[in-house]
Amino acid sequence: MDAYLSPTPAIDSEHPAVRDFARAHDPGGSVRERAVALNLAVRDGVRYDPYRIDLSLPGMRASTALLQGHGWCVPKAVLLAAVARAAGIAARLGFADVRNHMTTEKLRQSMGSDLFVWHGYTELWIDGAWRKATPAFNLSLCEKFGLLPLDFDGVHDSLYHPYDRAGQRHMEYVNERGSFADLPLEAITQTFAQVYPGLGRTVLDGDFGADGAREAAAG
């Protein structure tokens, strides 16, 4: 279990900002209660933003997402793993390919697809089992898009909902990529180069949440 408690170059759980965040949001109590609280803190304390993708190691670090205050699904999953490890809770990263039926038109055009490869979530060791938590979409974003927020109770896996509040198709899991003690950055960058040519580092103008809200209202 040491591999799931130790810092890595990406899961930099010994970074002072990560340790301070973990201490500030760790309520004490059982591992389950602490994991639930830390997941919620990462989910809502760091804004989801897929308009800014930096596939360099510094750009994918937990501390980077925390200090910037925003990140897409993978850095937010890395951050939750780092915060959990800083709090003494074993954590690893899980990945899957998902089809997002409600992505913004701007992001779809940039990616050339509604398929999100290497979508990241976090697996936390709670009561003798790995539990999946997905801290990607902050609550305010869900409210703008009309999505059901992803809650995590530490007992059941927390994965993307297949439908939104209105019953429209949202997320579809199409391929599982497995679990990792550290960020498989080389594999991610190789796949991104194949699936999204030229995406390597992307910064789009605009506000992802605002764009999504406008499209939802227009639709």
How do the helices and strands line up, and which of them pair or pack?
Blueprint: H1 16-25, H2 31-45, E1 47-48, E2 52-54, H3 57-60, H4 62-68, E3 70-71, H5 73-86, E4 91-100, H6 105-111, E5 115-126, E6 129-133, H7 139-145, E7 171-180, H8 185-195, E8 201-203, H9 208-218
Helix pairs in contact: 1-5, 2-5, 4-5, 7-9
Quick recap of the structure?
This protein has a single domain, classed as C8orf32 fold.
Keywords:
globular, C8orf32 fold, two-stranded parallel ribbon, single chain, alpha+beta
Description:
The chain is an alpha+beta fold and 219 residues long. The chain has one domain (2-154, 166-206): C8orf32 fold. The chain is 39% helix and 21% strand. It is built from nine helices and eight strands. A four-stranded antiparallel β-sheet has the order 6-5-4-7. It has a two-stranded parallel ribbon with strand order 1-3. Helix 1 (16-25) crosses helix 5 (73-86) and helix 7 runs parallel beside helix 9 (208-218). It is globular, with a radius of gyration of 16 Å. The N and C termini lie far apart (48 Å). The model is unreliable at 213-219 (pLDDT under 50).
